[in-house]
Design a protein that fits this description.
Virus Head Decoration Protein, Chain: A, six-stranded mixed sheet
Amino acid sequence: MVVWLGGMALSNMTTIQHKTWFTRSNSVTFQSVTFASGEVLAARVVVARVKATGKAVAWDPNVVDGSQTVIGLTAQSVDASASDKTTSIYKSGAFNIDLVIWPDGVTEAQKQGCFDGTNINVEQPNEG
């Protein structure tokens, strides 16, 4: 069985995983972005955009080229190892904070604040 979510096909395995990934029934929206050549990212990685190029990259809170400002989360794995790759990211929704793939060394304060100014919420799922 294949389930469609926002124009993306999800298999049964993905659907089971997404039940814990989505923490509320809020709408999830997507945005098409182009990832910079050399980026290879798993699903659920925090994403930012380099100002000079307009290309998406993994979030890095320790730089000042734009990639310190979060724009979303990868909705699927991204392989731009050979060239730029255009794909969709999550632009809004409520997600399980424990399933987000964070950069090494990121603090709890950075995790809590990195989505300020976006329509993304990261939180513990309500298991009740």
